[in-house]
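Help!! Second protein's tokens look totally different from the first
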Amino acid sequence: LIWIYSVGMLAFAALTGVLALYLNAEFGVTEKTIGFFFMYVSGISIVMRLFLLGPIVDRLGEVRTVRLGTICLTVGLGAFPLAHSLPVLALVLPLMPIGTALMFPSTTALMSRFSSKGELGTVMGTAQTFAGMSRIVAPVLGTMAFQRLGHGWPFFAAGGVVALVGLLAFHL
């Protein structure tokens, strides 16, 4: 569960770290228009967490919600660089905040449920430590991949890593 949480955070931090660079290079988005994209992603994340997450978890349970989240995040990251127009991008982009909204709270809930009472603080602290390290490392790795391998590579790499760790979600 800690790996699922940390790698999911790594992928999402890589996305946010190179999103502005990618949108500028591929679609000519500037500092004057980038706010709309972040507002779109944030708005979807807020709607997911405030209104949809609870009913989804009630219906599917946390384990299947984590699985669905890893699938959404993987597909969203992998498809993002393949979207060659803004309308297609507007359809693909929501998969990433939907995926993280499904993954992160459900994974945290499972960690708290399956940790012994005496180890709960250690488990949650370890998960947050790894997630914090992911938030530091991901933008650096993402921008290196963007610059050296190509504009789509941070997304493909992040999607591949989430897919691999997502396999763990199917063994819960």
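Here's the second one for comparison:
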Amino acid sequence: VEVDTVTVVVTGDVNGDGVISVTDMLAVKYHILETTMLTGIYKEAADTSNDGNVSVTDFTQIKYHVLEKTLIEAN
């Protein structure tokens, strides 16, 4: 009997594979370019700046995380 379910959103892990990678960076890029739109928890994970929007700022934060310049902190 299922009592409850919980969804965990990892900030920056846009595709939900457990790793923040170039794939996540590309997903944000395509969202910004309106090629492939993110929705739901994927959009929430992409919003690394926690301002309610997916923008170039979020793309840059994921890029810097992938390049190990600045790590993303949980929202």
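Reply: Different proteins will give different token patterns, so don't panic. The two ends are 32 Å apart (CA to CA).
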